[in-house]
Every structure is written in C-alpha cells, then in structure tokens.
Input
Amino acid sequence: MPDPAEFDNLRVVLVATRNPLNLGAAARAMSNFGFLRLRVVNPYDLAFREARSAVGASELLARAEEYKEVGAAVSDCSLVVGTTAVRSREVRHSLRPLKQGARLIHKEFRSSRVALLFGSEKVGLSNEALSHCHWLMHIPTREDHPSMNLGQAVAVCLYELTRDSRSLPEPAKLQLASADESERLTSVLLEALRTCGYLHPESATLTDTKVRRLVRRLRLSAQDAEVWVGMLRQILWKLRSGK
Output
C-alpha cells in the first residue's frame, strides 16, 4: 500500500449526493482504506451526517467539509479527476480506465493534493462539475449495466489506489531442486511404486519415464524435495517391515 501519510493529500468529493445512506457508505469505504478527507457539494439531505450506513466512520462523516460549488471544493487541489460511467454521454475529456487512472492519481498525491469527484446517483457529474476536471476515470463494467452504486464505486476506486504491488515485500525466492535432487526423489518414488506393486515389469521403462517427467513438472524447491524423499523412505520402511 502507499505510505499512509500520503493519503491525506486525497480529497474525495461527492457532488449532489441524493441518498444519505450512499453518502454514509462512501464514508465507510474511505475509512476502510484510510482516506479521511471527505468533501460534499450540495448534498440532497441535510441530515447526511447521521447516516446509519457510515458504520465505523461516523467521525469521518461528522468532519466532512461542505461546499456550495465544485470550484470551491477543489480550489486547493492541483489535480481534479472526475468519475463517470460514460454510457451514451459525449465525453470531452481524456478518459482513462480505473487501473491506469489510479496509477496516475497515486503518483500525483505523493506530493500534492488531488480531488476525486463522484456525481449524483441519478445523473452523475454535471457538465459544470466536469469543467473543473483535468481528466476522467471510469470503472470497466458490463455494457448492459454500466453504473454502480455510489458507495461501491468509491470503494472500488479507493481499493485500486491502495493496490500498489511495488510497496509489498518481495517474496523470498525459493531455491529449486537441482537435477541431482530431483533424480534422487524420482529414484525413491520409483522404488516405493515397485515395492507396493504399482509398477508392472513389462511397462517399467515407460512408467519410469513418465514418473521422471512428473517429478520435473512439479518444480519443487530443494527443501520440499528433501521432505518428500524423507516421507517416501518412511513409507518404504513400512512397506518392507510389514508393520
């Protein structure tokens, strides 16, 4: 995930939200992912700060900054990005899919403030609101059903902003079994198969080849190959001792 200190540079701006439950759900998503700066422009319901859907995010909702105009809500931001479902709308801005857009936003909010705008549930962002945007971003959805619930859209966008694999620790690289270690495992496995009667003398050569290929395809680590050899030897001992 990005450095949490950078999250303070992102402003989530909800414009003309009609349903206070959706506003509460958006606040909850923001809290989930650590983005705590919410701004609202002309919310439909003045009681939105008491939305029951803001589970665990009531403080964030109470601190939401309220504005009358989009211009005022984004005045301190160097990048303003609008979201849209596109549909049949004529788009006059650069339009980027979520993955690409989130990467650009993440790069920007490392050093300066960014506003991410979401429009009303019914009509989205107005042309006037869009005029304040530098470019637009959309979530790829099914063509027959493009629009998402506001709270869900906020959650998806914020998740993508935090999904930065470069900041995750590199997984430890496993040392793969050498050819010699793989052959030792193959030999013990073949011995176990012969002892239990799985291999038939008339087809032994063909089966040996198949087992050898199978072991190679497993691409075991050196440590795992050693464990398998130990287990197979224990099975062989049990088979031969009859215990």
